[in-house]
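Order emerges. For instance:

***
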Amino acid sequence: MDVVWSGDWVAERLGVALEGDGELRELLGLALRRNPKRAHLLVSNVLGKHVPQKPAVVYGAGYGLGERVRALLGAEEARRAVVLGYAETATGLGHAVADGLRDAPYLHSTRRPVAGVAPAGGFEEAHSHATSHLLLPEDPELLAGGAEASTLVLVDDEFSTGNTVLNTIRALHESHPRERYVIVALVDMRSPADRDRLTAFATEIGARVDLVTRAAGTVSLPDGVLERGQALVAEREAEQASPPGQAEQAARAGGAGRAQTRARAGGAGADAGADPSAGVGRAAGDSGETPEGRIAGGAAGDSGRTPEAPAPLTRVDLGWPAGVPDGGRHGFTPAHRAALEEALPGMAERIAAALGPEPRRILVLGFEELMYAPLRLGTALEETLGADTEVRYSTTTRSPVLAVDDPGYAIRTRLVFPAHDAPADGPGDRFAYNVAGAGFDAVVAVVDSAADTPELHAPDGLLARLAAHTGRVLLAVVPSYTPRPTSAPHQEPSVLPEPLRGPAFSSYAPEDVGWLLQDLSDTRLEAPTEEREEAIQSGGAHYAESLPVEYQPSAAYQALFTAALDASAARIARAVGTVTETVLAERGPRPVLVSLARAGTPVGVLMRHWARHRHGLDLPHYAVSIVRGRGIDATALRWLAAHHDPADVVFVDGWTGKGAITRELAAAISAFEESSGISGFDPEIAVLADPGGCVRTYGTREDFLIPSACLNSTVSGLISRTVLRADLVGPDDFHGAKFYRELAEADVSGDFLAAVSARFDEVADEVDAAAKELLAADRAPTWEGWAAVERISEEYGIHDVNLVKPGVGETTRVLLRRVPWKILARRGAGADLQHIRLLAEQRGVPVEEVDDLPYSCVGLIHPRYTRGATGADGKAVQGA
């Protein structure tokens, strides 16, 4: 059966001829583009840019070229070589070539300036739609030349005239001369005159220039082809922009006689391992680009979905290895390569788990210059899923190409969407080709964090465009790598630990929270409450060096918790919704929630649930440790900075008391930035309740019962308080915590989440009104709580604000974990204090009714405690 070549359509209409090696037509098809300098486009079937292809085929094409360069240079010189790839099309190809050399560092040019990184050079690409290339290596010596300079290997997808490569070599040779260059391309399409010009150029600069390609040939262009090509593009685009009835007629006219060829229109096999399904088949009658879907070559319902019923979006936490760059924009070393190789299977497992068993045809879609990371994720996913699942790979692009639904044309369909990475050249359209109508059950969109912007998630953004053409959309964000400022202290990157997740650590679902903690479950850390209190107040130990014995509630107290949860679930839901909407409005659209373990963690999980329920957002959420007097976990901050933009991090806590943790966090972030050179974290905390007037971002400033404060681990995923002790936590370790698996039967963490989440719809209108009011209000902290605590400390002869714990939540903690002296209750406070009164009765602690208290209650820890002493003066009194 004859196979239609995907260049026939252009060849027949413009007289363009492709001649050369027998493999050439398998490697290349033809298309037309809107470009004033060159009408035709050579479309590679093995590059993974415009045509979805097996990841192993794409990677193998580049890796094989790299092995040939290694054989040409010899093992020793190959180890010293530097590989330079071209943006955007050859960034992944160049990286694969560098892998084939095995030990060569890699750098690719970029069209994205990076703040604070000075260019080490640049050059022009004359025929491209976007001409300027920048070189931004982190190591300024990477491109250094001289008599002993290593070979420079330059990689592009095609070697057509040689102008781009010659411009590059000329620019670099003037500043960094070297004796040898190797040019690598998939295809060599130069004319005889261009071949002679390269020979003359090598003689001119006095260097050896070798060429390694997979295939060679020429493109014959008849006179006037540019003008005729432009006219043809204009004609076809006018047809595609016609009203639906006319467009359908035009499509039918253009498709006459094609019905019998569609069955064999899979596109040319691109490699010995490729199959006909590498191409894209479409149904007859598909129209051109439509105003509604901006999809050329097909209508919005190709996959049975419409923009009104989009595919669900799932965010996948890759667990990208810390310190490994997202690509070669600033350089990629053999050490980076080794770390990535080790992490790839685990990342593929995460993607596979998120996909589930249903999808059998999957596209991994990269993003412009970000080609290598999604390609390697694709190769790992192929191995993980096995032969029963079909995986393909391609990327989005800046290049505008005409789409024509014909098996003899290389670009069958086109998705159009706005740029989503704040490009230096301003806003504009971007494209994904041969994706619509290709029958993908799921698309895994891979972007870097700099491109995870509102535009990506907009109604006309890439994710929405994809959602109309597939059953599921997964979003995987690779942290954008920014070189350390030259003024920052040098520090060798360490291998950072990965977050812990349920069910191995905590009873929360694995996607609900990643614990940036180490598991100390097998370490005995508990001590009797009185013993801990004496050690803490005597200065013999810090409260974070041990754990209190977990309080096991009585049946009466458990019933009180259940009643309190039922009574306050809607109130909690309103506060959750209000604080989440405020965060999304001021820190959105993709905040990274980082809760302060452990009181903040149930709130962070609920905020995540609200964002998903109301907005379809899948926000990342982590829990970190902060310790009063010791600061926040610096290793956790380094992990966050390596995996996310620090500016996106929003710290979350349950409530404020007097604001001690608010101040602690601000001081800790400042110290961390000064010592690490990492900046961008905002120390402001978002809390459910702010009775102390200590923060700007809150759900309410009422002091009311938050049921999660009533219990310990059994309402917080069965996780203990965090632990920081020198013999257990090293300088590069996360702080520790325990997972109380043995308390599973008493766990109500899921019940708490379910009870509050069930009220989300009920409170939605109230939340919208409250959030709108808050966003327009003056929310400057008043620090009213701190002033009250100082007054109480002096009035009661305590003289230590750390022993005064204001608010329902903090008072509950005093009764559960410390040695309480007395409880101050605001006169007239009702149901919110029922559990407080029960706990006080159980522990024999007096409750004193007072007026003019800004909180519902205040818990006073026993001052100057020694076992047997209860009075403020440290002496034993009756009733101790």
